[in-house]
Amino acid sequence: MAILVTGGAGYIGSHTCVELLNEGYEIIVVDNFSNSKPEALKRVSEITGKSFKIYPVDVLNKDELEEVFSNHKIDSVIHFAGFKAVGESVTFPLKYYQNNITGTVVLCDLMKKYKVKNLVFSSSATVYGSTDQVPIVENTQLGAVNPYGRTKQMIEEILQDLHHSDPTWSIAILRYFNPIGAHESGRIGEDPNGIPNNLMPYISQVAVGKLQKLTVFGNDYPTKDGTGVRDYIHVVDLAIGHLKALENVQSTCGVDAYNLGTGKGYSVLEMVGAFENASGKSIPIRLSKRRPGDAATCFANPSKAKEKLNWQATRGINVMCADTWRWQRNNPDGYEKVLKTIIGSHSPVQNHAAGFLMPE
Ligand code: UD1
Known about the structure:
Number of strands: 16
Radius of gyration: 20 Å
Shape: globular
Strand order of the largest sheet: 11-6-5-4-1-2-3-15-16
Structural class: alpha/beta
Order of helices and strands: EHEHEHEHHEHEEHEEEHEEHEEHHEE
Number of helices: 11
Largest sheet: 9 strands, mixed
Bound molecules: uridine-diphosphate-N-acetylglucosamine
Strand content: 15-25%
């Protein structure tokens, strides 16, 4: 029985694939590579020494996705595939609703048809909107403030309705706080398109010399040093959270949302300091006004995940920065430098530990 991972080539998806393979799961990856590179999966294979099936398929394409369900005995699905850029979602809301929501509906419809009812869904703390009630617990009133966040919130509601219609579904909704870091090998990590919007990739690109200085958005927040405070979580801790959620959905029925965070908040300036220590590089900064839509402070109460999933984050801020730096230093252009792999066909491709993505 296999685990289907949609969006498995992405930042969190690729790290989760590593942990799944290390635990001995058989995985099938579906990814349309619209915002990720096949190279990430080649490196997943290299890190784990294991091969797995990859379908270069869009979850919106029901016929092609159905082939995956008919070709394999799938036990559970971890669903990462989706667009994730807040600013872009404001400019192109329909693109986000179409891709994220319709994609999930198509996937769930096929899961229903093939009687696969275990699902781990990649949500985000963005569903809480700009709440100032911290630490955030799961039953806080939801109120996403942009189309991207609303797609996550709406999908959560769709999954609740689905479970209500058929209580034999088992669904874990994982609300990520701020994922950073990279696999300790330095071979896989976050590879944003263009100039990064998020703090950590921006800092690391300044450190490696690709960007000149970090703009700090606001130093007049009611926080320890005036800059925004967030709950940064190591992507490998997050990946392990998916394995715990998977074990949970495989053994129970129900639908539950879990905060995946550390429960600790760090300010922008603290993150800059920690990164300078880890990298030995200095990060020049420029103070600017607040970024619209940003909350002052956001951190999780992660106790529900600890109690019900037996999961808690173990990697601290220094490891997060050191691992981010190793990835950035070794791959200054992300996966870019690597020759594009041919993924023209929609037939499955086998990802060999030895190296290449090859048509089967
Ligand atoms: C952002 C998204 C959120 C998404 C998350 C993914 C927004 C408003 N929110 O969260 O929906 O789920 O990323 O990780 O985009 N900062 C700077 N300079 C920068 C970049 C960021 O000072 O160049 C500050 C921000 O003001 C904030 C902190 O760093 O205080 C973290 O920002 P960021 O990494 O973008 O994450 P969030 O805004 O928390």
